[in-house]
Design a protein that fits this description.
The chain is of the alpha/beta class. It has a single domain, classed as NADP-dependent oxidoreductase domain (TIM Barrel, Alpha-Beta Barrel). Strands 3-4-5-6 form a 4-stranded parallel β-sheet, covered by helices on one side. Strands 1-2 form a two-stranded antiparallel sheet. Helices cover 31% and strands 16% of the residues. The protein is globular, with a radius of gyration of 16 Å. Strand 1 and strand 2 form a beta hairpin. Keywords: NADP, Oxidoreductase. Belongs to the aldo/keto reductase family. This is Aldo-keto reductase family 1 member C1 homolog.
């Protein structure tokens, strides 16, 4: 991928890379694979990293970013990092602590974009019910 990847100008005059690397992995995928894949993505030229608290791999994603910064491959400002607020934390008093928890796990000073992951609020101890199709 061309390291001079294309960007889109947002209405606040900041830029976001048009192509992002998603870090979601199924629970059975070892977290070391997330670390490895994120490093490879940065080496390949990805500059937008999309992650979330719900993915349960923020430590590995943060380590990958920090290691590529330490190697001189990128600077922090080269990476556009997106994270997401989980649906049990929509109450106003939970937003900042949720972001701070993610930053601590990532060991980064800031995120570039913080989204609401799922537009429906859930109570803290309520999980998501996955409805599967029955085999024919």
């Amino acid at each position: 991928m061309d390291p001079k990847c294309q960007y889109v100008k947002m209405n606040d005059d900041h830029f976001i890379p048009v192509l992002g690397f998603g870090t979601y992995a199924l629970p059975e995928v070892p977290k070391s694979k997330t670390l490895e894949a994120t490093k490879v993505a940065i080496e390949a030229g990805f500059r937008h990293i999309d992650a979330a608290y719900f993915y349960n791999n923020e430590e590995e994603v943060g380590l990958a970013i920090r290691s590529k910064i330490a190697e001189g491959i990128v600077k922090r400002e080269d990476i556009f990092y997106t994270s997401k607020l989980w649906c049990t934390c929509h109450q106003p008093e939970l937003v900042q602590p949720s972001l701070e928890r993610s930053l601590k796990k990532l060991q980064l000073d800031y995120v570039d974009l913080y989204l609401i992951h799922f537009p429906v609020s859930l109570k803290k101890d309520v999980g998501i019910v996955i409805i599967e199709k029955k085999p024919k």
